[in-house]
Amino acid sequence: MHELSIVMSIINIAEQQASQARATCVEEIELDIGTLSGIEFGALEFAWAEGVRRTILEKAVRRINKIEASADCIDCGISFPVQHYYDPCPVCGGHLINITRGKELRVRSLVVS
Fold first, then answer.
1. Rounded to whole angstroms, how far apart are CA atoms 14 and 29?
2. Which of 16, 28, 43, 107 has the smallest CB count inside 10 Å?
3. pTM for the whole thing?
4. Other C-beta atoms within 10 Å of 83: how many?
């Protein structure tokens, strides 16, 4: 389950940012997670509950912005939503696509005190 290592990395980011701000508590954390990021959301929930115990994020409100994936077709130039990396263009059927959204995995913001 790589979601636990991701949670641990998020905890490290939060601890570093809180330390720089001379804060002792994270009240809220906002995450951007794309549907093609490789994150299994159910596993993330479990890993989060276990991983943040006795950390600076234990009582933080967590907000997740789920970023739906989209791509541009290199052949015909249209933009379209995708569910998988290898979805074909719905207009021309081409497989030469550029994923433009949906791979995100980042801490968008922290509210500290």
1. 8
2. 16
3. 0.88
4. 11
Cβ 57 vs Cβ 29: under 8 Å: yes
Neighbouring C-beta atoms of residue 81, cutoff 10 Å = 13
Are the C-beta atoms of residues 67 and 33 closer than 8 Å to each other?
yes
Tell me the residue type at 48.
W
Tokens of 20: 């720089």
Tens-digit pLDDT string for the chain (113 aa): 589 999 999 999 999 999 999 998 999 999 999 999 999 999 999 999 999 999 999 999 999 999 999 999 999 999 999 999 999 999 999 999 999 999 999 999 999 99
Please list the alpha-helical segments (H only) found in 21-105.
Answer: 41-51
- Length of the chain equals 113
What DSSP element (H or E) covers 3? helix 2-20
Show the domains of the chain with their CATH numbers: 2-112 (3.30.2320.80)
Q: 102: which DSSP letter? A: S
CA 93, CA 111: separation in Å to the nearest integer?
45
